[in-house]
Write a structure and sequence with these properties.
The chain has helices spanning 3-6, 20-30, 50-57, 97-105, 127-134, 138-151, 173-184; strands at 34-38, 44-49, 85-86, 111-115, 121-126, 157-161, 164-168, 191-195. By secondary structure, it is α+β, with helices and mostly antiparallel strands. It folds into 2 domains: 3-60 and 77-134, CBS-domain; 138-195, Histidine-containing Protein, Chain: A.
Amino acid sequence: MLVHELMTTDVVTVRVDTHVKQALTLLDKHNITSTPVVDSKHHVVGVLSEADLLRASVLHDPRARMSPVAEESGDVARYVEDVMTRHPMVIEPDADVAEAVELMTSTAVKSLPVVDARQRLVGMISRHDVVHRLARADELIKESVDELLDQLGVGWLTTVDDGMVSVQGPRSRRERDLARTAAATVAGVRSVDILESAPRS
């Protein structure tokens, strides 16, 4: 799977001069955990996450300690540029989804801005996007694999169980590689097993 096949293209964005309160409202309204910060040319200049906003917005409650709260700093974050993460991790639309997953699972990042060669925002991919696609029903996965193999002009048979695809029919090394490569491009496929022997009629 490639990033552009899973990414969301209708992305909620903010600017550096967006008010923190307005950004909080946007994340809540759209039920998202982060949003790209873009400039006037749609270049990604940062990312604003729930964590960034929470750190800037939640005051200590004196009831928790039954004592007066220490005097707060007078510098209260008012704009996105005061709290956003600069130089965020991004990924390109033609990158392998496995690369995006590695970035998201090896860090605390839950989503990645997708940018073109000019660093302009073209989409967003999240952990949820990947989970949603992996959760496709086996019947839908089989339908997609069969359609792809039909386009390749081969008569191989497939079965899908728990996202694990078995392709029956390829004999040569080239055919096995073709079957494995083709099936691996289908969203929801977790593994590909090649059965060389042709099925009995």
